[in-house]
C-alpha cells in the first residue's frame, strides 16, 4: 500500500509505503501519523504497522477488523535568532568604545582572575608534591 502526498505549489510528492504483508502479520493493526505545521499545513504523512514481512501465518479470526490508530502531530518551529537586536547592540557598543564612554576600569586581578587562579592552584599542588623543599627531620644528625 503506497500513500502519496502532493504539496501545493512545490510540485513535489512524498511517499509513505506500507507492505501488505506487514499489515497482515500485525493482525491489521497500524499507526497512521499526520504531521502539520502551526498554520495547519500538511508536512508529512506516514503509516506504520510495526512488523516486518517474515511469512508468519495469522489465523483468520484475527483478521476481521482493522485497528488503525491515528495521530496528528503539530510541529512547533522554534523562533529564529534575534539578529537585528544583536547587531544594534554591537553597533552601539562599538560607538561607545569609539567615544571612550565604555572603558573597562576594573583592576588587574578583576580582569584576569580566571587566568591567575589556575596558575596558583597548579603551583600549590606541584609545591606540595615536591619533597625537596620540605625539612625532613634528618637535619639533627
Write the layout of secondary structure elements.
Blueprint: E1 2-6, E2 13-17, H1 20-25, E3 29-36, E4 42-48, E5 67-74, H2 83-99, H3 108-128
Parallel strand pairs: 3-5
Antiparallel strand pairs: 1-2, 3-4
Keywords for this structure?
141 residues; alpha+beta; 3 helices
Question: Would you kindly provide a brief summary of this structure?
Answer:
The chain has helices at residues 20-25, 83-99, 108-128, and strands at 2-6, 13-17, 29-36, 42-48, 67-74. By secondary structure, it is α+β, with helices and mostly antiparallel strands.
The biggest beta sheet reads: 3 strands, mixed
Strand and helix order: EEHEEEHH
The secondary-structure class comes to alpha+beta
Strand order, sheet with most strands: 4-3-5
Q: What oligomeric arrangement do these chains adopt?
A: single chain
Helix content: 25-40%
Total helical elements = 3
Secondary structure: number of strands: 5
What share of the residues does DSSP label as strand, in percent? 15-25%
Mean pLDDT: 78
- For the record, give the distance between the C-alpha atoms at the N and C termini, rounded to a whole number: 97 Å
Stretches where pLDDT is under 50 for at least 5 consecutive residues are: none
Shape: elongated
Radius of gyration: 35 Å
Pfam families: ECM10
Subcellular location: Endoplasmic reticulum membrane
Organism: Rhipicephalus sanguineus
Main location: endoplasmic reticulum
Amino acid at each position: 500500500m503506497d500513500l502519496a502526498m502532493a504539496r501545493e505549489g512545490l510540485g513535489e510528492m512524498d511517499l509513505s509505503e506500507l507492505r501488505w504483508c506487514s499489515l497482515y502479520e500485525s493482525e491489521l493493526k497500524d499507526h497512521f501519523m499526520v504531521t502539520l505545521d502551526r498554520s495547519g499545513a500538511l508536512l508529512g504523512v506516514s503509516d506504520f504497522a510495526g512488523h516486518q514481512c517474515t511469512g508468519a501465518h495469522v489465523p483468520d479470526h484475527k483478521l476481521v477488523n482493522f485497528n488503525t490508530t491515528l495521530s496528528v502531530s503539530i510541529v512547533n518551529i522554534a523562533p529564529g535568532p534575534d539578529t537585528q537586536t544583536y547587531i544594534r547592540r554591537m553597533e552601539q557598543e562599538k560607538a561607545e568604545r569609539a567615544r571612550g564612554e565604555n572603558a573597562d576600569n576594573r583592576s588587574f586581578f578583576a580582569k584576569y582572575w580566571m587566568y591567575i587562579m589556575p596558575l596558583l592552584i597548579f603551583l600549590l599542588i606541584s609545591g606540595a608534591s615536591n619533597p625537596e623543599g620540605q625539612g625532613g627531620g634528618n637535619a639533627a644528625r
